[in-house]
Design brief:
By secondary structure, the protein is an alpha/beta fold. Helix content is 26%, strand content 11%. This is Glycosyltransferase 2-like domain-containing protein.
Length: 605
């Protein structure tokens, strides 16, 4: 059953038909005036919502697009001549190209823009939405008209608006959110999604909003690291909602088809005047996606075991610290909107209701049927102040969320990615004996790839570096983290720290150094043999290295070769002992002097 408000004639007007009246087309007709359906988003993906989210001083003036005759098919060319003012909110954005980077979000002014002239008739809550959003969210035009009522008077009695505050990083879970909403057996319902994005809005909701009138989707582009808070997005969703009740859905949660019926029935119990304003789950089923464990937790039982009271801050933080199971009457959030504070926006919201109306106005409901499955956040090593008890196998198999149709989508979108990320085999890490840094084999190869061969690097890492895995002789050094942490993670060392060079001291048994010495020795001996076999007679005679200390030769990289002079002297001594003549010198030698002529012998007498 489609969600709608009751009009004066008792009929439920179509939401899209009512929204199209806000596009002020001239009497001559236009592209969207006489059409039963909006244009196809695949052929026209860059349509701006006129009059929704102004950014300039002229944005508050009435805007009338140019008149164009109606055509049979709407395409992107039909909108080229229509004058448009820049807007930050788009129903659909063009797809990003892999070649060119998407344009960044437009810069924001340092101070929020002044309130428009029509803000004199606004409520204080609407003014806060304008100021907190830096003038991006116009509270009246966002509803489709300056009256702020979207063309209808009062909400349908007993209807519910499911509000979801999401962001661009959660777009992979948007299909799960829609399946949980669509599977609800509650008849009169709508889904209000407020998303902030940096590059592109949700493709799933952008296409779906043209097909299903129960969806109200608002995507707002924000600069990088300047996103709206979750409390502000929830206030926007409550402002856009039109139901008597508001229920918050978590995009990472799983909700059974009977969830809304169960929660709203609790709000309607009791006599008039004593019925609760809000309700949340006090006993919940949780899923640890990094281990796949399904547990059950009761904050009240945990507080009783610890000797704590329900009014203590730590107990209220556990009870009301997450709005995944918040269901309340819409007028409560209009009078007491969410606000950021130290205790948390959710805890502050419930505390103000109890302080103003009484502690019984926030009802606590124990989930014994498994109508909701809460997904734990924070990472695999996140610490929790409480311990979750694992649910027995028989109890887990009988939960309603386990047997619903959206359970398979939940496992594929939430649990399987976390399990695959946590089951990646951990690479062994070892400590370098010289600098004390920790490296994996891949990191050590990256550091030393310019100086050593891969075989030398792997051999040194295996035989010289100290292991750090559990059960080895050498363990990791003590961590500097607090002792209260449950799981300790090894520190990650920057790979730009290089190992010591050759001029530093290195162990004598280093095989890489011996290999370099052997290569340098063979090169030096080859040079000496070449000098000994020099065939040129005019070369200078070699200096007797046995009588004087020969200078030590240098390795190709400039390192001295220890003991080379002594080895060369020993070699020359062996050659002298064998009586071999010294090799001729390379310089030209002078001609040897000729012997004087012998005197002629005298004749004998």
């Amino acid at each position: 059953m489609a969600f709608s408000r009751t009009a004066g004639d008792g009929k439920a007007p179509n939401r899209r038909a009512a929204d199209k009246t806000s596009l002020r087309q001239p009497a001559g007709g236009g592209l969207l005036r006489d059409r039963a359906l909006p244009p196809d988003p695949e052929t026209c993906t860059n349509i701006l919502l006129d009059g929704l989210f102004p950014t300039g001083p002229a944005a508050h003036e009435d805007y009338v697009p140019s008149a164009r005759p109606p055509k049979a098919v709407a395409c992107a060319a039909d909108f080229e001549d229509v004058p448009r003012q820049p807007r930050e909110l788009r129903t659909a954005a063009p797809r990003r190209s892999s070649a060119a980077a998407p344009p960044p979000a437009p810069p924001e002014p340092a101070e929020p823009p002044p309130l428009p002239e029509e803000a004199a008739a606004w409520e204080s809550r609407e003014k806060d939405l304008w100021l907190q959003s830096q003038g991006t969210f116009h509270p009246r035009r966002a509803l489709g008209g300056d009256d702020g009522r979207r063309g209808r008077s009062l909400p349908t009695r007993g209807s519910v608006s499911v509000v979801a505050a999401t962001c661009e990083a959660q777009q992979e879970q948007h299909r799960l959110l829609w399946e949980c909403f669509e599977a609800q057996e509650f008849d009169s319902k709508e889904l209000v999604v407020v998303e902030t994005y940096h590059y592109s809005p949700s493709e799933f909701f952008t296409r779906l909003q043209w097909k299903d009138k129960r969806l109200v989707y608002v995507g707002i582009q924000r600069p990088f690291k300047r996103d709206f808070s979750t409390a502000l997005r929830r206030n926007m969703g409550v402002h856009l909602a039109s139901g008597e009740f508001v229920a918050h859905f978590d995009v990472r949660g799983l909700y059974a088809p009977q969830y809304l019926d169960c929660m709203i029935d609790r709000l309607c119990q009791g006599k008039k005047g004593s019925r609760p304003i809000a309700v949340t789950l006090s006993r919940r089923y949780t899923m640890d996606p990094w281990s796949g464990d399904l547990g059950v937790f009761s904050p009240l039982e945990w507080a009783q075991e610890k000797g704590l009271r329900e009014t203590d801050a730590v107990v209220r933080k556990v009870l009301f610290g997450d709005a995944f199971s918040f269901v309340y009457r819409r007028e409560a959030a209009l009078e007491l909107p969410f606000r950021e504070c130290e205790v948390g926006a959710e805890v502050d919201f419930c505390t103000r209701i109890m302080d103003r109306e009484g502690s019984t106005m926030v009802a606590l409901l124990e989930d014994t049927r498994g109508v909701c499955l809460h997904t734990r956040s924070g990472g695999a090593g996140a610490q929790q102040p409480f311990e979750v008890r694992l649910a027995p196998q028989e109890e887990a198999d009988a939960l309603e969320v386990v047997n619903c149709e959206a359970f398979d989508t939940y496992m594929r979108a939430i649990v399987e990615p976390a399990l695959n990320a946590s089951q990646v085999p951990q690479e062994e890490r070892r400590v370098h004996p010289e600098n004390g840094k920790v490296y994996t084999l891949s990191e050590f190869r990256e550091v030393c790839k310019g100086e050593f061969t891969p075989e030398e690097i792997e051999d040194y890492w295996k035989h010289q570096c100290k292991p750090m895995l559990n059960g080895s002789a050498e363990q990791a050094p003590a961590s500097s983290r607090a002792a209260g942490k449950v799981e300790e993670r090894h520190r990650r060392v920057a790979v730009e720290v290089a190992p010591p060079r050759h001029e530093d001291k290195k162990p004598k048994e280093s095989k890489s150094l011996l290999m370099r010495l052997e290569a340098a020795w063979e090169e030096a001996m080859a040079e000496e043999r070449a000098r000994a076999r020099n065939p040129f007679p005019f070369a200078e005679p070699a200096e007797p290295v046995g009588r004087a200390a020969a200078p030590s030769r240098q390795a190709p990289d400039g390192d001295a070769l220890p003991g080379m002079a002594e080895l060369l002297a020993q070699l020359d001594g062996e050659e002298d002992a064998r009586g071999e003549p010294p090799p001729p010198s390379a310089a030209p030698a002078a001609d040897p002097p000729r012997p004087p002529p012998e005197a002629p012998a005298a004749d004998p007498p």
